[in-house]
Amino acid sequence: MSRANLDLFEADLSASLSNLQRILNFYPLRNLASNELFLIYLCKNVTALILISP
Q: Among 12, 15, 32, 52, which residue has the fewest nearby CB atoms (within 10 Å)?
């Protein structure tokens, strides 16, 4: 493979990886899952406190 072809291949691969990274951005999903787990934990504890309270 010539150097010019290799450079072109590397540039194309870099652009493809950049696009894939943009598509597969899991940070919002991770934050959503974290918020959901927090709310489930909070609801269970509040429910337990309500049931235990006289």
A: 52
Neighbouring residues of 9: CB distance < 8 A, sequence distance ≥ 6 = 1
> Is the model's pTM score more than 0.70?
no
- Give residue 51's identity as a one-letter amino acid code: L
Q: How far apart are alpha carbons 26 and 21 in whole angstroms?
A: 9
pLDDT tens, position by position, for the chain (54 residues)? 577 666 767 777 788 777 777 777 777 777 778 888 888 888 888 887 777 766
User: Which residues touch 1 (CB under 8 Å, ≥6 apart)?
Assistant: 9
